[in-house]
Amino acid sequence: MKIVDGFKLREVCGEFVVVPEGSKLVNFNKMLSLNESAAFLWKAVEGKDFDVQTLADLLVKEYEIDSALALSDAGKILDKWVEIGVVR
To answer: How many angstroms separate the CA atoms of 59 and 40, rounded?
Structure first.
């Protein structure tokens, strides 16, 4: 998977949000707000190919959490990103 070109992570008033850039993304009608760990993952994989295991490994390394919990959390984050249409 990869983040779709044209979506950028921005910090607005202390909140992390994903916003579309460019006219081809003008139909993006859902705001994607990310918590700190999801923003960390976004920054880590931006411009790179990745999968759910990549995200889980990043969570384990950064937050020193159990790998099963990391895989579950990474799956939920990735499912949301796919649903919104910011990754393919």
So the answer is: 9
Phi/psi at 28 (5° precision): -65, 105
Confidence of residue 25 (pLDDT cuts 50, 70, 90): low
Q: How many CA atoms lie within 13 A of 76 on its CB side?
A: 10
The model's pTM: 0.91
- How many C-beta atoms surround the C-beta of residue 57 within 10 A? 17
Q: How far apart are CA 87 and CA 2, in angstroms?
A: 5
User: Within a domain: residue 25?
Assistant: yes
Number of domains present in the structure of the chain = 1
83 CB-near residues (< 8 Å, 6+ apart): none
